[in-house]
Amino acid sequence: YQGGRIHHHHDYKNEEHPAILLTCWQAVKWILGPLISRRLNYSFKNGSDFKANLVYLHAESSTEHEFIEAANEGWNKKRKTKKGTPRQSDSLANVSKALTLLPENLFCKYGVVPPQRVHALFTYNLTFNHESVYVAGRYNKYVRDLSQTPWLIDGELKSKDSVETLISQHIAPLFECDEARFSASGREDIDVRMLGSGRPFMLELINPHKIMFSREKYAEVEARINAHSDKIRVTRLQRIRKNQTNALKEGEETKRKTYKCCVWVDRPLTKADLDTLAQIKELEIDQKTPVRVLHRRSLATRRRTIYHITPEEVNGHFMFLTLSTQAGTYVKEFVHGDLGRTIPNVGTILGCKADILQLDVLEIEIDFPKQIDEPKPFSFSHSSSSSSSSSTSSSSSSSSTTQPSNMNIDSKPPSETAPS
């Protein structure tokens, strides 16, 4: 034993096999691992997702490394991380690095050679943890008063439900995990519906205690989520590997998205207006960070592409626009201009004032997670806690796998006057 390491030489005559240098913890790991494996009847595998963390503590020798500071001046100065928190300078990694750089003559000069005999026994802490498990799917949202994640203002929860809570409350208990972290391929505003095949999402389940579930179990959980609330619907629920999670974020800025919105203009629409919009192909727009999101996004000008627009007149001052856009486009701002921060916009193109009344996401062109063979469907009735305040069109769309593309403006066409 020297410098906190075990130096083990193989008895080889051939110099092609050099000495192997092992740290103490590596030796203990490979000695105890097989013993514990035989006792518990589990296989011992280096790099397994399920880990037993054994921390040895010995108070009598806890300060024996401090001589390194005198031998290597400046080693023990506290450094700050990027977040401003002090880094533990006498951690195992730092001590090992300092010993590696310390010349043998200085080690012998400042250290205690040979080491003193210890009298106290060691203690240890044993903990277990499992690597994160990832569950993915797609969700539809059928109401205009539901945020994607819990809505907090000054630490106060402003809404009981969110897409995240309606999904994770059924999945996290199944895995008995310490925490569930929700993420999705972009987000829609609280007043925007998510129709079509839904928005890809993912849950990272931290330190799960249960992980092995059949495809039928995922289908059962999926059906339970959908029966609990008619505000959302989940499809393609499945477990994915960690290396598959990158596809979720990569699609945020690279894929196309299709929207449908109801637009008001301050003068009567003409056929020429509709033709002008219909002729738009590959229109590049410059968007400064919208005023409404400046509190959470940095100020920048982003170039986005409107691939094409399909206009449909509703009644005088009102029309529907179906837009195919680059992911990351602020559609609301493309319509009303955001005080001139988005150029060009619908208003400048038509030479009038324009505003957006309602917006739906129709499609997100990203194949995530992969479509899987559906097992025999489960059937659950909606619980009494399900919301009954959503519109008729929202309720009917949640009970069918084919979602309507029509907007839900009013029960009758709007008048030819500006909305209040």
Describe this structure in words.
The chain is about 25% helix and about 30% strand. The protein is α+β, with helices and mostly antiparallel strands and about 425 residues long. The strands form four sheets. Strands 5, 8, 9, 10, 11, 12, 13, 14, 15 and 16 form a ten-stranded mixed sheet that branches. It has a two-stranded antiparallel sheet with strand order 1-2. It has a two-stranded antiparallel sheet with strand order 3-4. Helix 5 packs antiparallel against helix 6. The radius of gyration is 31 Å and the shape is elongated. Residues about 1-15, about 385-405 and about 410-420 have low confidence and may be disordered.
Residues in β-strands, percent: 25-35%
What is the number of helices? 11
The whole-angstrom Rg is 31 Å
Kindly name the structural category.
alpha+beta
What is the count of β-strands?
Answer: 16
- The helix-strand sequence is EEHEHHHEEEEHEEHEHEHEEEHEHEH
- What's the main sheet like? 10 strands, mixed
- Report the helical percentage: 10-25%
Tell me the overall shape: elongated
The first-to-last residue Cα distance is 82 Å
Question: Topology, pairings included?
Answer:
Blueprint: E1 5-8, E2 20-23, H1 24-40, E3 50-57, H2 67-71, H3 92-101, H4 104-110, E4 123-130, E5 133-141, E6 152-153, E7 156-157, H5 163-175, E8 179-184, E9 193-206, H6 215-228, E10 232-240, H7 246-254, E11 256-265, H8 271-278, E12 281-288, E13 301-315, E14 318-326, H9 331-336, E15 342-343, H10 346-350, E16 354-364, H11 392-398
Parallel strand pairs: 9-16
Antiparallel strand pairs: 1-2, 3-4, 5-9, 5-10, 6-7, 8-9, 11-14, 11-16, 12-13, 12-15, 13-14
Helix pairs in contact: 5-6
